[in-house]
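Consider this:
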Amino acid sequence: MLNQNDFCKKFCELEANHKLFDVEFNGIAYWKHARYFVYNMIRYKIYGTSVPFWFDNDKRDEWKLSRYTHGYQKLTDMLLHNIHLCTQKDVLLFSFNRRVKDGKKYVSPVTDEISLRLERSHCIIEAPYCGGYYRPTPIKGINYFDVWNGVGEDTKLRAPLNRGCFRKQILKIFENEYDIEFTNEEKKILLVNINYYIMYRGDLINNYKKIIKKIAPKVVLYTCAYIGDMVVLTETLKEMNIPSIELLHGYVEDTTVNYNYLDINLNNALPDYIFVYSQIQKDIIHWGIPKKNVRVVGWPWLEKKKNEMLAVVDRQTKKKTILFISCGNPVMAKYMEVLSRNLDLNNYEIIFKLHPTEFASWKEQYHNLPDKIQVIDNNEHDIYFYFAKSDIVIGIVSTALYEAAIYPVPIYILAEDMYEKMNILLKSKRAELVNDEIALLSCITKDSGTRYKTDTSFFAEHAVENINNEIEKIIIERGEDNA
């Protein structure tokens, strides 16, 4: 089985050598839209990773979230629906809409702290997440905008990409090189998601233009530039000659296909600039854009929560707390089972923090979990709350493991599939790799309780100040400021 380094390198070589970014259907070069979906499907087939929610659109309603309906959005979004209303702002920010509960509010860890402290005039846009909007909103001034509103209502037939053409143009390349075969069901899933952006790309661009023309921004910030809707947004901004800036929403490395390319300028739908967490990260990734456009800024929310949680830690138990960070891999259950059998649970507490995408389905995926494990399948507290009360942190692959490094705790990474994605953390010696359950048990029982030094090298400090400074530089560089 390919390790993550080789998998990413091979994927990038294949798409470059076969000129996949030039492959067209109905005049649309669609690999930039298909890339994310195909990559995740291949990764699922090879490594058995958790199934993304888009694999089965019927399951979106299983997400237990508090949200407004689309009807509410149509009544309240005066910015979009009032054709006479035009309000110019320097910065347009599409907030990251995966929110977590923080006290009495749902907050976006990626963008809220930025949106509250932007120095330039700005407009905040939020899209629905899995069909609706969170309640209550975290900050005033959010404009709700669904780019899919009205898309597909045209009854005129538009020929979608068919299974045979898709396999001939794209899939057979990866089937041959990775020695895999896509099932008809898998092809159908891929086609459904990719065809949205072939059939309705023009409609989506028109919807984006409506909102962008109203704001007339000098720069636009957003996340997940590699996913279909955001790819279309980038294309729209390039057409309108407005600088596009992506904010990372997780720690990526040179094993993350989404951000790595064999060469720059292969993908003409990449954002103009990317704001990253650290210089280490900037140096190691093979970005598809010039390095000078990759700006080191840090992560504002992490700075905020670290200071809050380390100042006030409520330790109601004298037990040593072991925190497992889920990555969607059921193999973690066997590690927790061994610990629960061999540790004195009068002295230890084992917590399993699920990823939000697992809240609705974890009982099926982790059906062998020991009863004595505390499973966190809600957003009542964010990950930083659990970091602050933990004595040991364990995982395979997750941005959270990098975040844990700023807390004075030991970090153990399990040598299971995908762990190579933690290369930067392992090479820094801030985390220790353990090969099996017995090795992990040994590490925990030998742990002396020493408080580790915090490591801030993975996230630049003064993040909000850095972001404001970089926005100012970009506006000046691009000659957007008429002041």
Q: What stands out?
A: The chain has 18 helices and 19 strands. Residues 57-68 have pLDDT under 50 and may be disordered. The radius of gyration is 23 Å. Residues 31-47 form the longest helix (17 residues).
